[in-house]
Amino acid sequence: MIATSTNFVFPPTDGSVPPSSAADFHLIHNPKRLFAILYDVNDSSQTNVTYEQLAHAIHRAAHMLNPNGTIPQGTNIGFLVSTHTIEYIVMILGAMRAGLVPFPISPRTHLPGIAHLLKSTQTSLVVAGGSQTIDGIVSQLSSSLSEIDFPVQFVDLPSLDQVLPDLNNADYQFDHKPFSPLKPMAGDDIVNILHSSGSTGMPRPVKFHLEGVFKNIVTQPFGWIYAQDEVRVGTMALPTFHAMMWSQEEAAVAYLRQMKGIMFGGGPLAGAIGNKLVDQGVHIHSCYGATEFGGVNEVSDMDDLSDWGYVKFSSHVDPRFVPQNDEDHSFELVFVASDDHKPFELNCEIDGKPAYRTKDLVVRHPFKPDLWKFVGRLDDQIILLNGEKTNPGPMEGEIVKCPIVHYAVMFGRERNQTGVLIELEESANNLYKTEEGRSKAIEEIWPFVERANQTSPTHSRLEKQTLILVDPARPLPRTPKGTIPRSAALKLYAHDIEEMYLDLEKDSGAAGAVDPPQSWESTEDVEAWISRGVQSLLDRDVDVVGDLFQQGMDSLTATMLLRMIKSTLHASPHPDVQSAATKINQQTIFGKPTVRQLAQLLVQLSKNSDTTVDPITEALQNITAMIQKYDTNWPRQEISNTRQAGSDLICLHNY
Q1: Do 406 and 469 fall within a single domain?
Q2: Element (H or E) spanning 362, and its range?
Q3: Average pLDDT for 57-66
Q4: Labelling 346: which of 40, 42, 177, 299 has CA 20 to 30 A away?
Q5: Tell me: the pLDDT tens digits for 18-52?
Q6: Are 362 and 330 in contact (CB under 8 A)?
């Protein structure tokens, strides 16, 4: 939570103070102001971090990353780490202050993808560590890098105490040793590198130049929010299924109703969920942006809440709309570089001007021409409910290598996981006629699905239960060119797809792979059972007290773990144990992210059927208490051309 106070001095937004110098600016102008309040959810303790502490930590990290300044300014440095948020911030800013270009890499990226990112950007120095999972990745990555003849030096991640020795030590004496001054930066100098998810093939590095950092991010409409007087903003990276969970909780909806605005982005929010929130008086709105070009839509309140699924583009960007001449009257969205907006990547020209093709498809509001709604991707990319993205092409291509498969069409938009329609070759259609034949067909196809899973991000993986065989009496539609129109195919099998997902929710057969605990009253037994289940999902040993999401779990494996738990509870002969299945959901996995916490909760639920689980109410109470304690006077920054914003705003982004 960011905390500021009156008399706070803001750095200029014209690029004269680049991110690498921001710490020095605040050390001079705002040393005793609060940068952050670290809140410990275990004991409710709070630790303040001032800008002075932050600056000292950044300089300390700069010396660690570039001892004596021997590494030339502008050299890339990768970060493959799992650590505290505050340390991550310090290390990234420390790299900038050391004159290096930080390149944070997601540990969820597959090994060939990480190797590709490092080699394509010539990043030969990488800070790594923070978890056993990272250590395992580094070991395997070293072998992959040697195969492509690209040596990389891995540096151990410093401990939090090394970077912020004064964090829990009030008596610590500052020993500030400033890092040497850096050469001035030009507008096209690279500030940092990010990368795409790799859902459309290999992940792509995106280089952030200084001019773009300010024009595409700082001075775009999202930056205007922070310039409003008496505005409180909460910015959280949360998948949109949190909105789905909140919409089912009266306490959560009541709290959200108090907000002036709730914004979400990064992936689609199911129409039924958005409409339900709007019907209950929640001011929810879409926002849109991308790594390649920043945030580009207005954030002002809309006149009609029913337009929550549409966006209005900022006057600071130059969007162009390329008609697709389809029945939906959709357009591909393209951004042309302008004086006020400089996309980080340019991949085409329009009217002789450099531009970026997003491959996102939009449709215009039927009555309000300045509002646009996103309806899909040119490359048929599937955006899951949690914002994760899957490009079906490579996986479908692997599945159709099976001799009995004629065509494969993946799906999963606005769902927790993917599935696939499989059309058999005409010679194999007889297998469809009996249940035994269909099972035989699935078994013959499955090795090819496994190969597709191995070459794809974990959130894209298919399960046997998500394979749907196409009925020969209802063949997939064809275009005049003989291809399968994806939207028409999914429409034809919409009922079958819905039935498949309902069967998944019923958890039928999900518990068979792992034997149930010997006793539901023994935390040790339940803990061992959950550990076995998680190990089978992640294919590695897990720390029972460590955060599962830092050990490799993602939204898909969390869904699979939930199904295993619920199906095993349902299968118990004891009514209290069966009842526990109705009291847990996906939010439970995220709210109790360790094996031990989950085990303790399940034992408690099994012993007492009257026990209720309400993590949202508890979280809201903590948030409210924090706001009340630290809601003092807020600063005002003078920025021209500000847009009117409300008194409260929450921005939810998926990454």
Answers
A1: yes
A2: strand 353-364
A3: 96
A4: 299
A5: 999 999 999 999 999 988 888 877 777 888 899 99
A6: yes
Among 645, 655, 654, CA closest to 233: 645
Average pLDDT over residues 450-472: 88
Residue 231's pLDDT is what? 61
Secondary structure (DSSP) of 252-314:
HHHHHHTSSEEEEESS---HHHHHHHHHTT--EEE--EETTTEE-B--SPPS-GGGTT-B-B-
Give the pairing type, strands 348-350 and 353-364. Answer: antiparallel
Q: 620 and 474, same structural domain?
A: no
Q: Give 28-31 contacts, CB < 8 A, sequence gap 24+.
A: 31/55
Q: What does DSSP say about strands 34-39 and 46-50: parallel, antiparallel, or unpaired?
A: antiparallel
Q: What is the mean pLDDT of residues 161-168?
A: 86
Q: What count of other Cβ atoms lies within 10 Å of the Cβ of residue 209?
A: 19
**Do 400 and 456 share a domain, yes or no?**
yes
Q: Output the pTM of the full model.
A: 0.73
DSSP string computed for 180-195: PPPPPPPTTSEEEEEE
Q: Which of 134, 133, 152, 154 is nearest to 144 (CA)?
A: 152
In a shared domain, residues 492 and 527: no
**Residue 454 CA: distances (Å) to CA of 117, 384, 448:** 19, 19, 10
HSE-up of residue 502 (Cα within 13 Å, Cβ side): 6
In order of 294, 416, 586, the CA distances from 560 in angstroms are: 33, 10, 10
294 and 428 fall within a common domain: no
Residue 578 CB neighbours (<10 A):
15
* pLDDT score of 612 more than 70: no
Structure confidence by residue, pLDDT tens digits, 330-359: 899 999 999 999 999 999 999 999 999 998
In this predicted structure, the answer to whether residue 12 has a pLDDT above a threshold of 80 is yes
Query: For residues 568 and 292, what is the distance between their CA atoms, to the nearest angstrom?
Result: 44
